[in-house]
Automatic annotation (TrEMBL):
Cofactor(s) named in the record: [4Fe-4S] cluster
Keyword Isomerase: no
Cited SUPFAM superfamilies: Radical SAM enzymes (SSF102114)
Name of the protein in its database record: Radical SAM protein
Organism, as annotated: Chitinophaga qingshengii
Lineage: Bacteria, Pseudomonadati, Bacteroidota, Chitinophagia, Chitinophagales
Signal peptide coordinates: none
Length: 200
């Protein structure tokens, strides 16, 4: 089954613990106010990929310990994501995944694909971005309502260390001169950074 994605990078140091691959899915049914990535909302504007191609890239990338999946909204493509993520976990990689839906709402939906994805996660982060609750006191999340579930022993030790983990960003300059930024920072700083990079 095909996936609609916005981007995929094989190695990042800012999208969760350790070195990880990162997959941004395309398409979002939640569309939070003041979202930092509204370009990921429209599913039709994504790139269509065969998950087996992503699995080959993961297998060929040394040094990564897991993959982080965000969006867009991953649960909107649960049927396509679940078999892909099952194979990711079977390979020994860890899984960190973000959803704008709460864990309770997902489980109460009765969708076995969505429930299966949650069950696979080492770290599951839930809840929509809420502009009025904007906070960068914790790593990886942008508002105080969002919850970080450490669901396995693999990263359980980080639960008491969140206050020591800083949000970071990466700036990537491709061979064609295009510039991409990933990571977590306040939107105002992100826009300022983007303006500055545009002057290079």
């Amino acid at each position: 089954m095909e996936l609609y994605i916005n981007d995929f990078i094989p190695v990042t140091a800012v999208e969760g613990p350790g070195l990880r691959a990162c997959l941004w899915v395309q398409g979002c049914s939640i569309r939070c106010e003041d979202c930092m990535v509204p370009h990921t909302w429209d599913k039709s504007k994504g790139k269509v990929v065969d998950p087996s191609t992503l699995l080959q890239t993961l297998a060929a990338t040394p040094g990564i310990e897991g993959i982080t999946v965000l969006g867009g909204e991953p649960m909107d493509q649960a049927a396509a994501l679940l078999p892909f993520l099952e194979r990711v976990k079977a390979s020994g990689l860890s899984l960190m995944l973000f959803s704008g839906y709460t864990k309770e709402a997902i489980l109460e939906s009765g969708c076995h694909y969505k429930a299966g994805i949650i069950a696979l996660c080492d770290i599951f982060i839930d809840g929509p971005y809420v502009k009025a609750l904007t906070s960068f006191d914790r790593p990886w999340v942008g508002s105080g309502n969002q919850r970080i579930f450490f669901q396995t022993e693999r990263y359980k030790h980080l639960e008491e260390q969140l206050h020591t983990i800083e949000n970071k960003v990466e700036i990537r300059i491709a061979e064609d001169g295009s510039i991409a930024v990933n990571g977590m920072m306040p939107k105002e700083k992100f826009l300022e950074l983007r303006r500055s990079l545009g002057k290079i």
